[in-house]
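Two proteins, back to back. First:
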Amino acid sequence: MSREWAAEAIRLVEADANRSADTHLLPFPLPARWGIDLYLKDESSHPTGSLKHRLARSLFLYALCNGWIGPDTTIVEASSGSTAVSEAYFARMLGLDFIAVMPAATSPEKISLIEFQGGKCHLVADPTAVVATAQRLAADLGGHFMDQFTYAERATDWRGNNNIAESVYAQLALERYPEPAWIVVGAGTGGTSATIGRYTRYRRFATRLAVVDPEGSAFFPAYEKKDWTVSTGRGSRIEGIGRPSVEPSFQPAVVDRMIHVPDAASIAAMRAGSAVLGRRVGGSTGTNLWGAFGLIAEMLREGRGGSVVTLICDGGERYADTYYSDAWVADQGLSITPFFHAVDLFLSTGEWSGGS
């Protein structure tokens, strides 16, 4: 493999980071009398529109520095959408072919985004077969399987180097609560929660990490049972988070609390949050907000002030025909009204019913 080609490829990927501004940390309006601040790290402002841009950049650098990618390597990834969009962007930057293996139920908007970035989509009917299919396809093509679910937690430098955790704390430095009580994230690969959990411990912060998990995902039941072989046998309806089995990148020891979030609650919180922010956010952001609202209500009951941070994982324009479609929600057999009322009650009074 050409060292000269690899050096130039690394320069191109690093240059993308160098010319990209950091993502914003947006305040989410809460009543001043609560004495609690909620912030949303807006990862939708990356060049490819999601949190996964960070992951894709790290995965490419990791693979390049390990000598796994050359000038003729076809890149293959197992992805429900956003990681594939970002990896397709970097593959095209390096002049490489890219194939995303994904569940057939992935939103048409995400498929179009992957194709816009020059990638090809290989759809699989069984969501539990996506990884195995990607492995076989990469082997057949003599390509490289990026394997985000294995390498997410090791490809990012969790001690710093402008990772997402370091960025959050730097942006909170002048706020009244610069050390958050909670950071709330979902788990797809588990890489983001691993990075944040490790960083807070390394920097000796008291911040606790909550991981929210949607229906159909193995992370929450496995965490409850302390059984990491748990498998649900089905995929998540909330794209980008949740997995049928516990992935190697998920590091449960750095997680302080797992929160199970019904899919109807994710969609209700997504829509309510979008109304407050004046812009559409994605379904996994709704999952994050639902978890953050419950923790803030708990802080209120206990009379504790402080700050809570979560993520806008991607924009809602990718889900116009799914999460924002009343017809799609009805076809899924979901009733979001009770959860929407729960969010409305919380935002006006601080009381939390959890949708019950």
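And the second protein:
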Amino acid sequence: MDHIVRIVEGRVLLPAGPWGVLPDVHRENRGHDFYPPFTELAGIPRLGSTADVPAPAKTLHIHYAIPDQSYDWYVAELDPTTGRAFGWLRAGGPYGEWGEFILGELETFVLPADPRDPRGRPAPPEPPAVPMLRLIQRDTGFRPTPAALCLPASTI
């Protein structure tokens, strides 16, 4: 069966499955879908189902990040009825931890604009015509990978 994802009024409509409708309010600014295709979401283990798997052997299915920042979220398990995920996360520092997060909250999150230009100098006095949003991006090239192969060894 072909699963086609459509975007209507800023929301992702899935053809089947318990989620039904997923927010994708920053799709235009992000330049890609926040959520992977439904067939990929459906293949992620249910929340709590890999509790007996050692952390280095857990498969990470999706990677989200804020470009040029030390923010990462890797999804290992997912509750398809709520969007709650379990995985590895790092919030602005060199270390990460295993925990839960909600995909819908990540999708709508906007990091405040950085007042410096890319070289670290103060921004010009007048703001740019269109402020640059710093959004959480899905790593569209990421493929399911064991945690031991993609996370810092000291944090697994």
